[in-house]
Amino acid sequence: MSLIVDRRDLDFVLFEMLGADRLADRARFAAYDRTAMGQILDTAQALAEDVFLPIAAQVDADEPKFVNGQVEQPAATGAALRAWAEAGFFGLAFDEAAGGLQAPWTLYTAATGMAVAANTPVTNYAFLTVAAANLLAAFGSDTLKAQYLPAMVEGRWFGTMCLSEPQAGSSLGDIRTMATDRGDGSHALKGSKMWISGGDQAITDNIVHMVLARLPDAQPGSKGISLFLVPKMRTDAAGQITGSNNIALAGLNHKMGQRATTNCLLNLGETGETIGWMIGQPGRGLEYMFHMMNEARIGVGHAAVMAGLAGYLHSADYARTRPQGRPAGERNPAAPQVPIIRHADVRRMLLAQKAAVEGAQALCLFCAGLVDDIETDPAARADAQALLGLLTPVVKSWPAEHCLEANKWAIQILGGYGYTRDYPLERLYRDNRLNHIHEGTFGIQGMDLLGRKIAGDGGAVLGRFVAMVQDTIAQARRHAGLGPDCDRLADALLALDRAVQALLGCADAERRTANATIFLDAFGHVVIGWIWLWQARLARGQLDNPATGEVDRLFYQGKLAACRHFTLTELPLAVARFAICGSLQSPALDSDPALFGG
Amino acid sequence: MSLIVDRRDLDFVLFEMLGADRLADRARFAAYDRTAMGQILDTAQALAEDVFLPIAAQVDADEPKFVNGQVEQPAATGAALRAWAEAGFFGLAFDEAAGGLQAPWTLYTAATGMAVAANTPVTNYAFLTVAAANLLAAFGSDTLKAQYLPAMVEGRWFGTMCLSEPQAGSSLGDIRTMATDRGDGSHALKGSKMWISGGDQAITDNIVHMVLARLPDAQPGSKGISLFLVPKMRTDAAGQITGSNNIALAGLNHKMGQRATTNCLLNLGETGETIGWMIGQPGRGLEYMFHMMNEARIGVGHAAVMAGLAGYLHSADYARTRPQGRPAGERNPAAPQVPIIRHADVRRMLLAQKAAVEGAQALCLFCAGLVDDIETDPAARADAQALLGLLTPVVKSWPAEHCLEANKWAIQILGGYGYTRDYPLERLYRDNRLNHIHEGTFGIQGMDLLGRKIAGDGGAVLGRFVAMVQDTIAQARRHAGLGPDCDRLADALLALDRAVQALLGCADAERRTANATIFLDAFGHVVIGWIWLWQARLARGQLDNPATGEVDRLFYQGKLAACRHFTLTELPLAVARFAICGSLQSPALDSDPALFGG
Predict the structure, then answer these.
(1) Four-residue CA torsion sign, A535, A538, A544, A547
(2) Half-sphere exposure of residue A513, counting CA atoms within 13 Å on the CB side?
(3) I want to staple B574 with a disulfide (CB 3.0 to 4.6 A). Which of B286, B338, B358, B525 is the partner?
C-alpha cells in the first residue's frame, strides 16, 4: 500500500466520477487517453515514492541557511527537482509550442499531487515556477517569452511571485516597490519584497521573479500596481548569463514547517541597479495576478489535501498493524492485544480523515476540470468561470482547515509516536498549517466568497450551484439507503438559503461579512457534502451491480461509510453555523477593541 | 501588558468568582490571606517573565541531545528550575512537616501557571517532581519519605512517572517490567520504560522514578501491577549518593514540541542490578497512580490553557499595533492603514481565543478548588470528589482541543509572522499538540466520562452537576441582557439530557461509547458555557454598580462579549453534537476495518 496515494481512489475520481478520459475528445488533449494518463500517473508516483518521499525528513531537519548573503541547502532538494524536470512535469500542462506537453490541468493536478503528498516543500519550487511561467505565457511579450519561458518550462530556471512587502501582506494595494523607466523599454526596480518562497536558492542558475511594483506617477492603491519580470541574473539575447541583477538576499524566514522551501526577504536595487521588464499594461499588475489566482489557490488547497492524504494513509497503515488494548467486552487481561483499527474510536478518526481528504481531493480535481473547461470548451466557459469563482475560496480554505484537522487525527492515532519526528505525521501537520495563510488568508477567502462571489451578483451563481446540488440529491434519492444522506444535505441547503437571504437583506456591509469566515466554513461543508453524495450515488450503483468484484465492493462500501460519516457528524454543524450567520449577530463586530486589554 | 498573564482576570477568577481568599479560614491555609496570595503570584510572575520566558525559544531550538549514553542540554533549563526551587515553588503545596509551604492547590495552580505560560517544557520537570513527590507522600513508607521527599520538595532531586512501555501505551495493563524480591525489603527491577518525560537530564544529581512493574507471581492485567520507587543513583542512609542504580538511557525521543523536556527510553536492570522499593501494597500500583491522576490531568489541561493564554495575549498585542488594511467602507487607498484589531474578523479570532482560554482557566482553577475541598473540607469532600471525577476528563481534554485551536487563531492573526520561529506562536502550537496525547488520550477521556463517570452511577453525579448549571442560569436570569445566553445554555442542557437518556438506554456498551469523544467535546462546551454564564452574571452585577470605574467596566464588558461569543457561536455546535450522540448511529462502529484499504 502506497503511503502517498490511493490509486484506486484517484482512478475513481478521475474516471468514474469526473470522466477525465473524455478530455481526449478535445483537440488540445488528443494525446491523453486513459492509457496515457495512467502512464503519466505511474511516472509521477514512481518519482514521488522513490525520489521525493525518502528525502522529506532530511530536508526538513536540514533547513536552508543564510551564509554570506547566499542560500545553502541540501543537494537532495535540487536533485529531486531535476528528476522532476527531466520527466517533463514542469511543462506538463504548457502548450507544445512553448515546449510543454499540453496535458489537461486535471492530469497535471493529479500527477503533481503525489509529489506534493510526498514532500510539499520541495515541490513548491516547481509549483511556483509553473505559476510564474503561466503568468508570463498569458501576458508577456513575445520577446520576454522567447527569452525566459523555455528555461522555466524545462525546469532549468525557477520562478517566483514577489507580491508582499514588510508593510503590505494581505493589503497588497499598499506596496511601495518603485519601477522607474530606463528609457530602453526596461525599468529599474527599488524596494523590499517579503515572504518570497523560492526567492533565492542554491538549485538553478537563474530565477525569474514576477514582481509587483509602482510606476512613479501611479495612482495610490491597487490600480497603481504593475507587473514586472525581474531576473536574478542578467542574460544576453542568447539567454547566457552575463552578471548579477543586484537582488540582495537580506535574510531567510525560519518557519514552523515547509522548511525546505526557502522564504526570503529580497532587496531590489539596493546594491546596484535591478532591471526588470513590464508584463502587459501599466496599472494592471494585480488584475494579471488574480487571473492566475484561481489555479494558485486550487494548488494551495490541493497541497493541504495531499498533506491530509499522506497522514491518512500513514495512520491507517499504523492502525492496521499496531496492537494495543482488547475488543470491547473482552474481560480477560491475558487475551492477546488487537490492532487498534479494531477500536471504534480509531475507525472514527480514520473515517474523519477519509471524509475530509477524499472529499476535498475530488473537489480539487473537479475544480481543475473547470480550468480545463475554461480553456478548451467555449460553450461551457462562462458557466465554468463563474462556478470556479464561487468554489475557489472553498477549495483554498476548506482543506486548509479540515485536512489540517485530519493531520491532527493522524497524529492522535499514533499517540506519542505521532508526536515524534520519527514519523512523518508531525511534519505534515507543521507543513499544512501554512495553507490557511498564504495565497489569501482564511478571513480574506470568506470576504471574497460572501462579498464578491455571492453578494456581488445577488446570489445568481450560488443559485446555479444549489441547483446542481439539488440535482445530485434527486439522483441519489433513486438509490436505496441514501435517503438519510439526501435529507441531511437538503437540510443544509435550506439552512444555507435562509442564511443567504438574511445576509443579502442586510444593508450594512460590515455586519454582513462579520461572520464571513464562519459562513465560508459552513458553505464548504455543503460543497463537500455534495461531493460525497455524488460519490455515494456512484458507489451505490456499482454495489447494486452483481458483476462488481469483492475488492471493489470494499472500496465502494468505504465510500458509503465516509459519506454517511460526513452527512451524519459534519453537516449538522454546518446547519448550526448557517443559523449563526443568518442571525446577523456578531459579538466581535460589536466589541470595542479596548475590551482586549492593552 | 504582560505576555503570559492577565492579572486582572486571574484576580477576578480567584477572588470575585471562586472566593479563594476564604481558603485562609481553614486551619491548613491560615497563612494564605489575599495579600499573601498576591505576593506569591507576584513572585511567580517575576520569575516567569524574567527567567522562564527569555529562554523559551533558545531551549526549544537547542533540544536535549543523547551523547555517550547521557543527556546534554542547555544550562539555562537547569538555572531556571533552580531559581524556581529557591523561591519555594516545588514545595508550595506540600505539608510544612515535609518542608513545604502548605499553600492551597488553587494558589499553586495559579502561580505555576505563569511559568507554564512562559515555558511549558522547562516547568515540566517541576510538574513531574511534584506529582512524584505527591505519590510518595500519600503512599510511601516513613523510611522512603524520610530518604527522598525532602530533596524533591526542595527541588534538589527531580521525580518522574514511569508508566508506559514500548508495547503498552494507553493499555497499561500490558506492562511487563518485572520486580523481583531481593529478600531485604527491596526489589530488583528489569524492563524497558518508554516516553519517560524527564527520565534523564543534566540538571539534578539524582532522579526519583515512580515505576509501575509486576511481581513474578502477579496476576495478568491491571490488578497485577505494583508501584516502586527507583532512584537513578543509589544513596546511603544519610542521603549521600553512593553509585549508579543501572538505569540505562537507551535514547531520547525527538518531539514536535515541548523539546526542552527530555523524553526517554530507559532500560532498567540491563547493565547491572536496578534496585527499587515498593510503595504501598502489591497489586495496587495503578490504583495509587489514578489517585494522583486528577491533579495530573488538571495539570495537563492547565498547560493547554496556558499555551492558549500566551498565544491570546501575544496576538492581542500584535493586533493592537500592526497596521494593515483600512476600515470597512473606506474607499480612499491613500488613507492611513489601521491596526488590524479594527477588523471584525480579527476581533472574532481574539474573542474565540478569549472565550476558550479564560473559560478554561476558570475551570482549571475551579477544579483546583475542588482538590482543596477534598483535602480540607470534610463536609464537602464526597461531593467534591464526585464532581471532580466528572469534570476531570473535561479539564484534561477540552483545553487540549480548544486552546490548541486558540493557538491556531493566534498564528492566523500574525499571518506569515505567526508561522515563523521569530514569534512564540508556532512554538506554543507545537507544544500544545501534546496535551491530547499524554496523561490519557482524548479517546480515553471520552470513555472515562461516558463509561465510568456517567453510566457508572446511572447519571447521578451528572444530575447534580446539571442542577448546579440550572442554578447558575436561574441566577443569571435576574440580570437584564443575559436572557439569550441563558436560553442557549438551557438549550444545550436539554440536548445533553436527551443524549444521555438515549445513551443510558442503550444496552450495547460498544455502541454507547462509539461517539464518546464527540460527547466529551459537547459536554465540555456545556461546562465552559456554565463557567461563562457564571462570569457574565458577576460582570453584569459589577456593571450595574455605579461605583465601578471605567477600566473595570471595560474588563467586565469583555466578559460579556466573550460569554455572548461562546453561547452564540459555540453552544449550538454542542447541541448538534449531542443529537449525533443521541442518535446512537456510528458509521465508524459499523465500518469493517477492511474498508480502510491495506
Answers:
(1) negative
(2) 23
(3) B525
Look-up of cell digits 530488583: B188
Is residue B182 within 8 Å of B143, Cβ to Cβ? no
Could you say which of A415, A421, A586 has the minimum Cβ distance to residue B170?
A415
Handedness of CA B187, B188, B190, B194 (dihedral sign): positive
ipTM above 0.90, yes or no: yes
Nearest alpha carbon to residue A277 among A210, A237, A238, A228: A228
Cα–chain-centroid distance for residue A226? 26
Q: CA B161, CA A575: separation in Å to the nearest integer?
A: 45
Which residues on B lie below 8 Å from A585 (Cβ)? Answer: 568
Q: How far apart are CA A298 and CA B383, in angstroms?
A: 55
Residue A463 makes CB contacts below 8 A (sequence gap 6+) with: none
Strand partners, B228: B211, B278
Contact (CB<8Å) A347/B591: yes
Q: Please enumerate in sequence order all residues whose Cβ is within 8 A of that of B47, keeping only pairs 6 or more positions apart, or say none.
A: B80, B83, B84, B87, B89, B114, B115
Partners of residue B337 in chain A, C-beta under 8 Å: 167, 171, 174
Q: Which helix (H) or strand (E) holds B279?
A: strand B274-279
Tens of pLDDT along chain A (598 residues)? 899 999 999 999 999 999 999 999 999 999 999 999 999 999 999 999 999 999 999 999 999 999 999 999 999 999 999 999 999 999 999 999 999 999 999 999 999 999 999 999 999 999 999 999 999 999 999 999 999 999 999 999 999 999 999 988 889 999 999 999 999 999 999 999 999 999 999 999 999 999 999 999 999 999 999 999 999 999 998 889 999 999 999 999 999 999 999 999 999 999 999 999 999 999 999 999 987 888 899 999 999 999 999 999 999 999 999 999 999 888 899 999 999 999 999 999 999 999 999 999 999 999 999 999 999 999 999 999 999 999 999 999 999 999 999 999 999 999 999 999 999 999 999 999 999 999 999 999 999 999 999 999 999 999 999 999 999 999 999 998 999 999 999 999 999 999 999 999 999 999 999 999 999 999 999 999 999 999 999 999 999 999 999 999 999 999 999 999 999 999 999 999 999 999 999 999 999 999 998 7
Contacts of A193 in chain B (CB under 8 A): none
**Rg of chain B, C-alpha, whole Å:** 24
Inspect the interface and report whether the beta carbons of B558 and A411 lie closer than 8 Å: no
* Residues of B classed as catalytic: 439
DSSP state of A172: G
For B239, left (φ over 0), alpha (ψ -120 to 50), or beta?
A: left
Cα separation, A536 vs A579, in Å, equals 27
Residue with cell 482488547: A326
**How many residues does the structure list for chain B?**
598
d(CA A223, CA A216): 13
Q: Which residues lie below 8 Å from residue B258, measured CB to CB, with a gap of 6+?
A: B120, B121, B124, B430, B431, B434
Interface contact flag, A437 B412, Cβ < 8 Å: yes
